[in-house]
Amino acid sequence: MAGEPRDDALLDAILGDGTALTTTRTCGEGPAGSLPVDDATLRQAPSGHLFGMTQNAGMGWRASEIGRDPYLILSTQGGLRAADGSPVALGLHTGHWEIDKLVRAAAETLAEQGGLPFSVMCSDPCDGRTQGTTGMFDSLPYRNDAAMTMRRLVRSLPNRRGLLGIATCDKGLPAMMMALAGSRELPGVIVPGGVTLPARGAEDTAKVQTIGARYAHGLIDLQHAAAMGCRACGSPGGGCQFLGTAATSQVIAEALGIALPHTALAPSGEPVWLDMARRSALALVRLVKAGTPMSAILTRQALENALVVHAAFGGSTNLMLHVPAIAHAAGLAPPTVADWTAANRATPRLVDALPNGPRHHPTVQVFMAGGVPEVMLHLREMGLLHLDAPTVSGRTLGENLDWWEHSAARRIARERLQALDGIDPANVIMGPDAARAAGLTSALVFPVGNLAPAGSVIKATSIDPTVVDDDNVYRHTGPARVFASEHEAIAAIKRKGEGAVVAGDVVVLAGCGPAGTGMEETYQLTSALKYLPWGKHVPVLTDARFSGVSTGACIGHVGPEALAGGPIGRLRDGDQVRIEIDRNSLQGRIDFIGTDPSQPLSPDEATALLASRETHPAIAPHPKLPNDTRLWAALQEASGGTWGGCVYDVDAIVETLRAGREALARQRAEQGTG
């Protein structure tokens, strides 16, 4: 370009000197051998099957074996590693960085069992990497796109016998579960991609995301921020070390029975992690031979088991979006708010893990304490599980738990946790009485009120206990600080002096639902508030969503969203907002009560005042909202919206389009006659 300095050597290197052409061939020897075909195959098989064999031979598979039963391994592998594991090209996150090892182990096992393994990839984004950027606008919509792409890849191997899905993180694993659920006539197994080890003497991958906010308030210095930002990952692969969306999705896969027992939260790269891939491949071969399709595993009973396990773990609220989507793909009725509430009322949280506390064990310690099957032993004793639900192990859930209770694997894992970390497994995964004594409470509450007539959600167990009253009810009344973008909100939280968010404020982030920003995740806000001394005194209300690692009085999924006319979009700075979350009854309300804190309005008066207002003038779709995401937002809205799981209900979409075309035709006809 004009004005730029020339580097003739670099320019010459870019253009090349043609040396590589001196050894370039123009023809080659074809593979030796012949296709395993007979007269009937040549006369009757589709040409695609025959050409597929040609391609198999062309890629170098042994000709005598290319007629074996095909198995498809779907993974979210990202990046490119050298033979020694060093990076050639980075992935977007550690969660998909080394699952090529799992693919290799599974493929080798399938081949040993007489199968013909195929491997395809549909990688995934990193929610942590896109926090606070416009990249987050693609995060949730990506899940639907990936699930569709994965299902298209499945159908592109027409004679596949079984599916092995290997995935780890926030959107890749939910998409993978949707893909396998939607391939309901085929046998399938999920291999959770595992978790990252914590690093000695370092901050975890949740806390390290707050170095900017803590530095801005003088809580850490530059050297500490730089060091901790570098050292958070104790291993190069796996999902984050906390019970966020990635880890919770792994737990849900196992709870649904579509992953083998004690495979969720395995430490990436460790021997037990590779062994999991081999055993999962063996399970898939057995399912194929038994003719057991995914639809036989993903039943209503499996779904109900998953809700109870989610409650016992105190999992991410993002599963409110993903579990209904998995159910929809499987042809099951999605769980309702009443179903989620019933599951949370039935059991307290039994797991002490990051980010919920109180001791904040990383996910690998939850795994070593026994993981999902250990939690299920307690749930079995409470009578909360469908023990006759089939699983991909070839046994029922009850039979799996009988095995686990007396297994060497259970004994070894728990003993090793005690020996390595000095931690009693019973302090990580507890029975209900011990959990209540430790102050663990049920997880999800779904507040309503004049600001959330269609509902909202809060992980009540993550509210700081020091701001909860003695009756276990969180109460807060304060002035609204209204923001129409996350950028403005985090700037006000980091700010000092005029315009800064202060203790007692209610941060309201509106216009960030599907139509505004693709329902972005707003962990920047909640993480900053968690690590600021006064942050526990600032609740957050939003029509966006939160990361599974978020803590505090943060209420998301507020519906209707502001851009759909929701009352949250009619709030103004200084409006008084009252929040009440009962962690005993699992009920809650969020209400606008007027503009004068000394003279709160009655519910009817406050609702009428809100209704008389226009939407806040700053609230609008983000100017950088991609057209792809706008399309996703429209399609999911026609399919039931966020409370339906942000799915694509094809029948509902077709009906909406037909009704719209008919309405437009009538309108044009009327205009023509007018």
UniProtKB/TrEMBL annotation:
Ranges of residues in domain Dihydroxy-acid/6-phosphogluconate dehydratase N-terminal: 92-400
Pfam families to which the protein is assigned, alphabetical: ILV_EDD_C, ILVD_EDD_N
Keyword Transcription regulation: no
Tagged with keyword Lyase: yes
Residue span, Dihydroxy-acid/6-phosphogluconate dehydratase C-terminal domain: 443-590
Domain of life according to the entry: Bacteria
PANTHER family assigned to the protein according to its UniProt record, in alphabetical order: D-XYLONATE DEHYDRATASE, D-XYLONATE DEHYDRATASE YAGF-RELATED
Family: Belongs to the IlvD/Edd family.
Name this protein carries in UniProt: Xylonate dehydratase YagF
Organism of origin: Rhodanobacter caeni
Organism placement in taxonomy: Bacteria, Pseudomonadati, Pseudomonadota, Gammaproteobacteria, Lysobacterales
